[in-house]
Each structure stands twice: as C-alpha cells, then as structure tokens.
C-alpha cells in the first residue's frame, strides 16, 4: 500500500476514471500550453469526454481558445459517452472524443463510428497503448481501492477487493456502486471477474466469480446520489471505495481526509485514456488540427502539470509531477484479457444490473 498524496483531481463519473459532468464549461484557470501548434478556423468543435471533471473541461476550453480553437465540451460517463457516440453514428454530433479507455473506443470503432487519423505526435507515444489507427493514447489512469487511513491502519486494511465482502470488519463499510454506466465501475469489475474466467461458465465466468459479484452488492453501502465518496469518508459514513488515481490528492484537500490505497498482489487495472476523430464530422480538418494540438507534448505537459496526470507522450512525461511518475513506475498493472472483457462487458453489466444490483 502506498500514499498517493501527490496525485491530483481527475475524473470520473463514478466515478470513477471518469468525471462525468455534462454541458459546456466556461473558461477557467490555465497552464502553459501556448507553445503548442495552433491555428483553429473558429468553427465550434463538439467534444465528448468522460474526463472533464475537476476543472478539466474549463481548462481545455480556455487553453483551446488561446490556441484559436472554439470548443464545446460535453461530459458523460465512459459507458454513456460510448453508447451516445454509437447511437449517433449516422448523424454525429461530436467531432472529437477523448478520455475513454481502449475498451470503450474498441466498441466505438467496431460500430464504425471512428475515422482513422494519425496525429502529428504519433511518434512520441507508445502506439501499442492505442490501436495505432483510430484512437491514440493520452493519459494513464490507475483504478484503485482507497481507504480512510485516519481510521484504518495499514496492517488492518484490506489487501484486495475480495476482502471487502469476505471479512466481517469491512462489510457495510465500503461504498458500492448503484450504477454500471461509468468507466471506473466497469474496470473494477473487469479486474474482479476476469480472475474467474471459465469457458463453460455463464458469460465466461465461473459460479464462484458471480458469487463474488453478488456478495460485493450484498455487503456494500450503496453510493448516495450527488454525494462524493470522500464526503462520506469524512463524515464516517463509509471508510473505503473505488477511486481513480488522479482524484485522490485534490479530494483529500477538499474533504480534509487522508487516504491510502490497496495494492493487490495481482496488480490493479490500468486504463489508458485515448483521443479519436469522430467519423462523419463536417469539421474534419479542424478536428484533426485540434487533435494535433491537444495531444502535443506542450499541451499534455501543461495538462499533466495542472492536474497531476501521467501522460503517455514521452516528452510530456518529463514535465509531469515526479511523484506521479514514481507512483506509476512502482505500480503493478493487473494482467487482464481486454479482448475477453470487451466481448463480454455489455452482457456482464446487464446481468449485474438485473440480478445483483438492488
């Protein structure tokens, strides 16, 4: 386990990996992205993302304007944004999408809702982290189980997710989700269910695996609408729950709590947020220029500095918070069969919502 005091605010939706605000943000404080390539035409680009929380949408709007781009940032949870992009593929509203992970973009690509485009900065990233064609990597995000370290000592803390519902001291003390529409929630279950892969099991998962999912819901404290997990931790209503790495430090400051994170022996799910050009946009050239600008080392470096994120762009990583770089260097990534997850996540979500989520 380790303190992640230096990682700052991010997403989420649940959530988690995914901030899920909606609507169009207004310009706010900015970092230094002025040296990145600019040259927008003045057309308004509609951008779908699940990574607009904690001021990201406002920052992007302001910095894009400085570079000559007029953008409308529309926030939604990872799964919701994915479904929206697929539903609108014959009459697209968005021009660009970013923040969604590989699992989501693979679904959007399979639905023929993305157009291949190779950004100007493609050579500065590990292309294997995306698909090297339609979606390209921007930021790494770890999906973690965090706990109130002012109340739970490291020795007494859970060592893995399964401890939450199998050990009496944690039952009813962890927040469990009440919806499966966010990236973080789905990634948490990807990390749990894939441990119980069984070709002869229901939806590829053994009976024991589904028992784990059922017990997660039976013994957790349901999330409270419009109430942050950290607020519940501060009030003593809950002691632990799921969180993306980048939100921890800022939430600790905001809610005046201290959080440690669990490092299971199997590792933690690691999401890579991507950017892509939406197929059918009537502002294709402007959208391509925006992607070149947004994913550039200068802009991603400024984004990393402002939000303590871990950029994939190698030049931008040099500008990231050293503690963030060290955290990810020391982090064990869980070995997950993402092709298997992508093929089954929709059915898993449906089963969970119908059978276990009360």
Automatic annotation (TrEMBL):
SUPFAM superfamilies: Periplasmic binding protein-like II
Keyword terms: Signal
PROSITE patterns: PROKAR_LIPOPROTEIN (PS51257)
GO biological process terms, semicolon-separated: thiamine transport
Domain of life: Bacteria
Gene3D superfamilies reported for this sequence: Periplasmic binding protein-like II
Coiled coil: none
A UniProt-annotated Pfam family: SBP_bac_8
Residues annotated as transmembrane: none
Secretion signal span: 1-18
Molecular function per GO: thiamine binding; thiamine pyrophosphate binding
Entries under InterPro entries matching the protein: SBP (IPR006059)
One GO cellular component term noted in the UniProt record for this chain: outer membrane-bounded periplasmic space
Signal is among the record's keywords: yes
The protein's name: ABC transporter substrate-binding protein
């Amino acid at each position: 386990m380790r303190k992640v005091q230096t990682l700052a605010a991010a997403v989420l939706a649940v959530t988690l990996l995914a901030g899920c605000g909606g609507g169009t943000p207004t310009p706010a404080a900015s970092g230094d992205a002025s040296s990145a390539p600019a040259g927008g035409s003045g057309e308004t680009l509609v951008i779908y993302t699940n990574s607009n929380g904690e001021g990201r949408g406002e920052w992007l709007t302001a910095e894009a304007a400085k570079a000559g781009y007029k953008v409308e940032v529309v926030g939604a949870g990872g799964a919701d944004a994915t479904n929206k992009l697929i539903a609108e593929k014959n009459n697209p509203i968005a021009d660009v999408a970013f923040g969604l992970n590989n699992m989501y973009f693979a679904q959007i690509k399979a639905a023929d809702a993305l157009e291949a485009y190779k950004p100007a900065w493609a050579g500065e990233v590990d292309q294997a982290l995306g698909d090297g064609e339609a979606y390209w990597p921007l930021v790494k995000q770890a999906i973690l189980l965090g706990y109130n370290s002012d109340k739970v000592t490291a020795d007494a803390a859970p060592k893995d997710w399964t401890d939450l519902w199998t050990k009496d001291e944690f039952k009813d003390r962890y927040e469990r989700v009440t919806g499966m529409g966010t990236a973080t929630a789905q990634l948490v279950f990807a990390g749990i269910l894939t441990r119980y892969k069984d070709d002869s099991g229901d939806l590829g998962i053994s009976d024991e695996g589904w028992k784990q999912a059922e017990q997660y819901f039976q013994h957790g404290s349901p999330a409270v609408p419009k109430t942050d997990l950290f607020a519940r931790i501060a009030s003593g209503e809950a002691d632990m729950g799921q969180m993306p790495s980048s939100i921890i430090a800022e939430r600790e400051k905001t809610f005046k709590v201290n959080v440690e994170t669990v490092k299971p022996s199997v590792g933690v799910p690691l999401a890579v947020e991507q950017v892509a050009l939406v197929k059918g946009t009537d502002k294709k050239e402007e959208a391509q220029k925006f992607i070149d600008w947004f994913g550039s080392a200068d802009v991603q470096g400024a984004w990393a500095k402002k939000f303590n994120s871990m950029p994939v762009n190698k030049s931008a990583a040099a500008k990231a918070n050293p503690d963030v770089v060290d955290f990810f260097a020391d982090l064990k990534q869980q070995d997950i069969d993402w092709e298997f997850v992508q093929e089954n996540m929709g059915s898993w979500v449906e089963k969970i919502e119908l059978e276990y989520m009360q």
